[in-house]
Amino acid sequence: MPEGIIVKALSGYYYVMPLEDGGVPSVEGSAVQCRARGVFKKKGISPLVGDRVDYVLTENGEGTVDRIHARETELIRPPVANVNLAVLLFSVKEPDMNLNLLDKFLVHIEQAGLDALIVLTKQDLADPEADGRDTVADVKAMYRQIGYEVISTSSRTGEGSELLKERLAGRISVFSGQSGVGKSSMLNALVPGLSLETSEISMRLGRGRHTTRHVELIPLHNGGFVADTPGFSQLDFLEIGVEELSTCFREFAQYADECKFRGCTHTHEPGCRVIAAKEDGLIAESRYRHYEQFLNEMKEKKRRY
Ligand code: GDP
Ligand code: ZN
């Protein structure tokens, strides 16, 4: 039975991109429009964009999704299966880099069990001389130290786009980042022929960008797919336990193991190794500060619910 990946779901149809031997999607051919087998509905299962499926061809070139392969991951917003990489885009300027938001994304990504790739966009606007020190370099060093890969890109000059494309090969990714950081521009640069509306164009046309109601996977010609809707658009902490938060700060782990008390929240407890590590400069001030802020935010939310 042929295998494929669901790249779009719309009005009860699933669009399945066939996989060739070896599991590479055949981007050249078009997707097969499929219905789901009735049995899925009875069992309360619905196929998701990103699902790897077996399908059978029926007459008139359509098909039926017959079996859904086990999912590696399942995101709720956007509803996509088998995403394993979150690409976090932050512009070096316009808008200014927001490390609080970056750390918040990282918490959600750690919790979802995805890999993260930090992409610093609009490198062409970076001006290390202007403020006397290279803040972009500081940010890079800080996150690399923690163990995240950080790359610099510019859709204007093309810097970094080959490297980014390599990182996206053979996996399903979501792009995350606040509006205006250059997500659409980057995808347009990566995929020849793609023309996502950038904010520049929607402004010229005097309208807001149309918000897609359905998710679609954009094929990258290297076995990779990117969801066309930003991931983690609503960042609240409702699904994360207070005790879980510190485990989402990767670099805390090695110290947290040695805190004097079990269940240490790393805020005031005597013998807390995390606080000691922060004081010794082994944990970045901004990371610790955001941890404290998120913890308070979570407690506040949980109190209200
Ligand atoms: P999105 O909201 O994240 O999808 O961002 P867009 O792709 O719509 O880009 C927002 C604005 O930034 C637009 O005016 C783009 O032309 C501009 N922009 C995008 N990428 C770059 C870049 O690499 N360098 C510069 N200087 N501007 C960029
Ligand atoms: Zn502690």
Write up this protein:
With 305 residues, the protein is α/β, with parallel strands linked by helices. It folds into three domains: 3-69, Beta Barrel (OB fold (Dihydrolipoamide Acetyltransferase, E2P)), CATH 2.40.50; 80-228, 3-Layer(aba) Sandwich (Rossmann fold); 238-304, Probable gtpase engc, domain 3 (Ribonucleotide Reductase Protein R1, domain 1, Orthogonal Bundle). It contains ten helices and 13 strands. It has helices spanning 38-43, 99-112, 135-146, 161-168, 183-190, 199-204, 242-245, 253-256, 273-279, 285-304; strands at 3-10, 13-18, 32-36, 52-57, 63-68, 74-75, 80-81, 83-91, 115-121, 149-152, 172-176, 217-219, 225-227. The chain has a six-stranded mixed sheet with strand order 10-9-8-11-13-12, with helices on both faces. Strands 1-2-3-5-4 form a five-stranded mixed beta barrel. The protein has a two-stranded antiparallel sheet with strand order 6-7. Helix 2 crosses helix 10. The longest helix is centred in the last third of the chain and has 20 residues, at 285-304. It starts with a strand and ends with a helix. The mean pLDDT is 90.
